[in-house]
Design a protein that fits this description.
Blueprint: E1 3-8, E2 15-20, E3 36-41, E4 48-52, H1 61-66, H2 71-74, H3 82-85, E5 96-99, H4 133-136, H5 159-188, E6 191-199, E7 218-221, H6 230-242, E8 247-249, H7 257-262, E9 269-277, E10 282-283, E11 288-289, H8 292-316
Parallel strand pairs: 4-5, 4-6, 6-9, 7-8
Antiparallel strand pairs: 1-2, 2-3, 3-5, 7-9, 10-11
């Protein structure tokens, strides 16, 4: 059952409807009595849904206790403040789903069971995907490493621990996302999902020129053209370029599990992943917001407004 509470902004004409999934999470998943949050307009007027699966920053004490890393090192995997950057999208008629749990604990942008068997004391069931590229990189549904490549855990885990994270956190996220997509499609006949992420400003440890080459400002991923109508991808790219940002498509990120799983243009569901260079808005070493974040948020709000206004025409074409 969905619970709701309104928050009125002093200078905003519309209400935000906050929807939580408290009732679907067991008590033993603390501190995640509210593992997700949906910021929704009082009335949805656009066929668009925004998703921020990697901006959660509530770290369970048991994870910190089992980790060999500092709190700062654990945060290397976060898409810091992405939920804040897109926080005004309800003003333009679209909901925003955000995870409250960190991706280093369980990653909703993976298959339900992409797990590294070397992380666990007990053998894994046969249905586990142990051979995906994400698993080999240490970045499965329950990650072995943070984004910097450092191992997270001092000791091996039990499979029951991973299953609990998946059942109590991963599944509620996807239940909520699927519900938003289905509801939007029922209302409008189609849905555009924008999956919101951030990326380190330089290449990662497993990339060519690791740690030396500065990335572009934005990367758009549409599964190499397979998850989103070309006109919508072009609209986003042209809008960002007009704002002065450098933009690439599908390199180095062409879209993760969410993009590829939900993006079904033949079924009137389109998905586009947006990766934002963190140097545009934050100090990556101190995890502090920079003054430029206000400017970037204004541009992303402008982009959301344009998308919400144009999506119905583009999707109905």
């Amino acid at each position: 059952m969905l619970g709701a509470v309104f928050r009125h902004g002093d200078d905003k004409p519309d209400c935000f409807l906050y929807i939580s999934m408290m009732d679907v999470v067991a008590r033993d998943s603390a501190p995640f009595t509210q593992p997700i949050e949906i910021l929704a307009p009082s009335v949805q007027s656009a066929p668009v849904v925004f998703s921020s699966p990697h901006s959660g920053r509530n770290y369970p004490a048991e994870m910190v206790a089992k980790s060999k890393l500092s709190a700062a090192d654990l945060r290397r995997s976060e898409d810091c403040y992405v939920d804040e950057l897109f926080g005004d999208v309800p003003l333009y008629g679209a909901p925003l789903l955000r995870a409250m749990f960190p991706r280093a604990y369980v990653d909703p942008n993976r298959e339900p069971f992409e797990l590294d068997p070397m992380m666990f004391e007990d053998p894994l069931p046969d249905y586990i995907n142990t051979r995906s590229p994400r698993v080999f990189a240490g970045l499965g549904t329950v990650a072995r490493v943070v984004a910097s490549g450092a191992d997270i855990y001092a000791e091996k885990l039990q499979f029951a621990d991973a299953r609990q994270r998946i059942d109590h956190l991963y599944r509620p996220y996807h239940d909520a996302l699927a519900h938003l997509i289905q509801t939007t499609k029922a209302m409008f006949g189609y849905c555009l999902l924008i999956d919101c992420h951030s990326m380190p400003s330089v290449c990662g440890p497993m990339e060519h020129n690791a740690g030396r080459r500065r990335r572009v400002d934005m990367v758009l991923g549409d599964a190499l053209g397979g998850s989103c109508a070309p006109g919508l991808t072009a609209l986003v790219e042209e809008s960002l370029r007009a704002m002065g940002y450098s933009v690439a498509r599908n390199a180095p990120y062409s879209g993760g599990y969410i993009t590829r799983h939900y993006g079904r243009p033949h079924n009137d569901v389109h998905t586009l992943q947006i990766e934002i260079n963190r140097a545009l808005y934050m100090d990556e070493e101190r995890f502090q917001r920079r003054p430029q974040m206000t400017h970037l948020k204004a541009h992303l709000s402008e982009l959301a407004e344009r998308l919400c206004g144009a999506a119905e025409k583009e999707l109905a074409a």
